[in-house]
Amino acid sequence: MGKKSAERNARLDALRREQRRQERRRSLLIYGSSGIVALVLLAGIIIYAVSENRSQNASHSIGHVTSAGKAAAAAGCTGVVNDSSRGNTHVAANQTVNYDVAPPSSGNHDADPLPDAYHFYERIPNLRIERAVHSLEHGFIIGWYDPKLPDDQVAALRTASDTAGDRFIAIPWERGDFPDDKHFVLTAWDRTQRCATVSEAAIKEFVATYANPDPAGAAWDSPTAPESGASGGTLNLSPTIAGSATEPAPATEPAPASASAGTTPEPGTSVIPGSTAPR
Predict the structure, then answer these.
(1) Phi and psi of 30, rounded to 5°?
(2) DSSP H or E stretch at residue 192
(3) In what order do the strands lie in the sheet with 184-188?
(4) Are 180 and 194 in contact (CB under 8 A)?
(5) Between 146 and 248, where is the model more confident?
């Protein structure tokens, strides 16, 4: 082999070694960059999961407040507060429960919930609200109105109850006034939102969010409706008025065959003292 051929071969070998070195360098850069991107993505996923878990834990905890939606804010409503559980034991049909909050969002209650054929109750002295609390446990939404809610607002509530859905019931609270000048209150089981005025949109917003909650929520710190999705109670309203559980029901026309638990009333349905049928 001549001298020139040897030099050329040496240069070729050097070029090949340099080429292989550069290829290894590019590979390392590519794999290294990919590894860094993968680590960044993994870290992001972990951070998101931890943040989401903390957020969920907070939203399930007692005392957490979920900001009022647009419609609720316009109606002067507070955010939705996660309440602590106040029991769920059944009491006798003529036993009164002294709830420590007005109105209750949970607590001991009558074994018979309110019927779901009615969505609005007139002002009835001594209305048996223990049945309404059982309705909450079944995943219903109760819209409570106290003695100071103006008549025009009561009329608005009566109208709104016609379109709020099968899981909404409006009833009067006759055990005093609600605090903070909020005379209309929406409750789900262990959820409370207090409002200055009645808003059909705010009611629908609350019902859409909190009616028939996921039964898994019964295990949260602030639980949601352990009997979610269950139907309403009997149409017999004679025990609805406190103290009348042992008295005979007043004579009334029989309810239509279709008016049973789980049915939807005609628009404008309400209940007045001594009535067991829609008005």
Answers:
(1) -65, -50
(2) strand 191-195
(3) 65-66, 80-82, 191-195, 184-188, 141-145, 168-172
(4) yes
(5) 146
pLDDT of residue 46: 62
Give the CA dihedral 116, 117, 118, 119, nearest 10 degrees.
Answer: 60
CB atoms within 10 A of CB 146: 20
Residues 6-18 have pLDDT tens digits of: 777 667 666 777 7
In the beta sheet, which residues pair with residue 81?
65, 192
* 250 — pLDDT class (breaks 50, 70, 90): very low
DSSP 3-state helix, strand, coil percentages of the chain (rounded to 5)? Answer: 35, 10, 50
Quote the CA–CA distance of 202 and 99 in Å, as a whole number. 26
Q: What sign does the dihedral 109-115-121-124 (CA atoms) show?
A: negative
CA 33/CA 22 separation, integer angstroms: 16
Contact 138, 113 (CB under 8 A): yes
- Which H helix or E strand runs over 161? helix 151-161
Half-sphere exposure of 9 (CA within 13 A, CB side): 6
CB neighbours of residue 198 within 10 Å: 26
pLDDT tens digits, one per residue of 190-225: 999 999 999 999 999 999 999 999 999 999 999 999
Q: H or E element: which one contains 207?
A: helix 200-210
Q: Are 138 and 227 in contact (CB under 8 A)?
A: yes
Look at residues 272, 264, 236, 230 and name the one whose alpha carbon lies nearest to residue 136: 230
What is the Cα–Cα distance from 165 to 233, expressed in whole angstroms? 17
